[in-house]
Design a protein that fits this description.
The chain is an alpha/beta fold. The protein is 45% helix and 15% strand. The protein has helices at residues 12-23, 42-46, 59-65, 83-96, 118-131, 145-148, 151-157, 174-186, 204-215, 226-235, 240-254, 264-269, 276-284; strands at residues 4-6, 31-35, 50-53, 71-74, 101-107, 135-140, 159-162, 193-197, 220-223. The strands form two sheets. A seven-stranded parallel sheet has the order 3-2-1-4-5-6-8, with helices on both faces. Bound molecules: NADP nicotinamide-adenine-dinucleotide phosphate (NAP). NADP nicotinamide-adenine-dinucleotide phosphate is lined by residues 8, 10-14, 36-37, 40, 54-57, 75-79, 86, 105, 140, 142-143, 146, 174.
Length: 285
């Protein structure tokens, strides 16, 4: 049995990937969970998972943590601006440790996207190509939770504000992406693989319709010009840079960057992607 490692295992996605590996009958003793702060992953250790310290910014920890690992799931870091170097350190350590496959959580449509977050993912994909270790790109779309987590605000205002136009968002839950990542890591295959991962697409008007239907509270989507959306976000308390960034994400959605008709996610899951209605229902429960 190969040994599997998952980085960022104290995070929401990493933790679910560990969970899904075990749901696919990988013994806990064959799973290595890398966490920057191992004390945040004691629950995994209690389940028999081998928890090791692994900090993307401290390469020595990575060399040690990846010893004996066959297949690695590199969960992209959460510190924008540092991630290219951090991911490169993980990839280098994996190569030195003799890891036979690296799977990486990239961004949907990485070949063509204009999403402001894409640069670091595109650079990491280039690093992987240059590293010479077979790799699997898990190009994840948006998490449905990005919206489900804001339902209270939508209900309070009676509207969803944005600048995404009629741009479609092929979102899926963290659980869906985690299950797909675990399935991809278990596949015995050669060469490099790219999976474009997203669920059935909705736009923000459709999101408003679903929220209204499930909560019984009327919510509409109000599309704003980017500049006006930035001003609104600033008035709501965001600093100028953050407001600009949030609005730029919506502008990218309007350009179609987060849309896909790929069936890769359903194929890896072996089941349908969790519907938006279910996510909203669970968020309200
Ligand atoms: N598709 C989307 O909609 C979307 C949305 C948000 C983020 N993302 C990306 O997807 C990744 C996973 O999402 P998530 O929801 O699981 O995020 P999360 O809950 O914030 O988890 C991020 C994980 O990365 C770890 N990490 C950050 N810096 C690290 C470092 N220097 N060394 C080692 N580990 C480090 C964190 O460790 P600590 O627990 O020690 O902080 C945490 O375990 C994010 O990091 C981000 O790249 C995608």
């Amino acid at each position: 049995m190969p040994t599997y490692a998952v980085t960022g295992a104290s995070g929401r996605l990493g933790r679910l990937i560990v969970d899904e590996l075990m749901a696919l009958d990988v013994p806990a003793s064959d799973v290595v969970a890398l966490a920057r702060t191992p004390s945040k992953a004691t629950d995994l250790a209690e389940r028999g998972v081998r928890v090791r310290g692994g900090d993307y910014s401290r390469p020595a920890t990575l060399n040690e943590a990846l010893t004996g690992v066959d297949r690695l799931l590199l969960v992209s870091g959460s510190e924008p601006g540092q991630r290219v170097a951090q991911h490169a350190s993980v990839i280098e350590a994996a190569g030195a440790a003799g890891v036979s496959r690296i799977a990486y959580t990239s961004i949907l449509n990485a070949d063509r996207t204009t999403n402001p977050l894409a640069g670091e993912h595109q650079d990491t994909e280039r690093t992987l190509r240059a590293a010479g270790v077979p790799f699997t790109l898990l190009r994840n779309g948006w998490y449905t939770e990005n919206y489900a987590g804001q339902i209270d605000q939508y209900l309070q205002r009676g509207e969803i504000l944005g600048a995404a136009g009629t741009g479609k968002i092929a979102a899926a839950t963290r659980r869906d992406y985690a299950a797909a990542a675990a399935a991809a890591l278990l596949q015995d295959e050669e060469g490099n693989r790219t999976h474009e991962l997203g669920g059935p697409a909705f736009d923000l008007s459709e999101l408003a319709r679903v929220v209204s239907e499930i909560t019984g509270v009327p919510v509409t989507y109000r599309d704003l010009p980017v500049d006006e959306y930035v001003s609104r976000l600033q008035r709501a308390g965001l600093d100028e840079a953050t407001a600009g960034f949030v609005a730029a994400l919506d502008a990218s959605i309007a350009r179609g960057d987060l849309e896909t008709d790929s069936e890769d996610l359903t194929r890896l899951l072996g089941r349908p992607v969790t519907p938006l209605t279910d996510v909203v229902r669970v968020a309200r429960a």
